Amino acid sequence: MEPSTANDAERKTIWGRLGHHLNFFRLHVLIFTFTPIVFACIFYGANGHASGNANGTELGRHKVTFLDSLFVCFSAITTCGLVPINISALHPFQ
Questions:
Q1: Which candidate among 17, 30, 41, 48 keeps its CA 20 to 30 Å from the CA of 6?
Q2: How far apart are CA 61 and CA 68, in angstroms?
């Protein structure tokens, strides 16, 4: 007995191949893994060009390393609230 042609056409598409492997758990693991990485890149890219602190004259120009921005974004998506940097000294966009 030969398989139907509709089933073969579905398997040739990307979503047809991923549909068998992508379940609720795997989808959430992918979202919780890649969303903070994307937002950490945005957070790091919004860095100021000067370094300073909250009490300095250049308020909002605290330079953040990528590791700190990655930690902040993973902390935000898991709602644990751990922040290794001074939030008041960041750029307003961040």
A1: 30
A2: 15
